Amino acid sequence: xxxxxxxxxxxxxxxxxxxxxxxxxxxxxxxxxxxxxxxxxxxxxxxxxxxxxxxxxxxxxxxxxxxxxxxxxxxxxxxxxxxxxxxxxxxxxxxxxxxxxxx
Length: 103
Description:
Layout: H1 20-33, H2 42-55, H3 60-67, H4 71-78, H5 81-96
């Protein structure tokens, strides 16, 4: 992980590598403060937020800036994920519930 905008979890300049133990401690503190289960992953929550913002037609540049990604990376990683997943699920649903054998 790399720090940006002055967020430093180590001694030195922003933008360098962070100490993984300190990152884990920050995440554990946030999880405890929010009374979340031990197996709750904050990164998954962050990914859901990005996906929801894009699905709600938020400005991709702003979503990328909030996620601290480039717009290209954000759109490649999160831009079509939910729509593609829904299409794949819809295509597989008849077979999953046994309707393919009725045809």
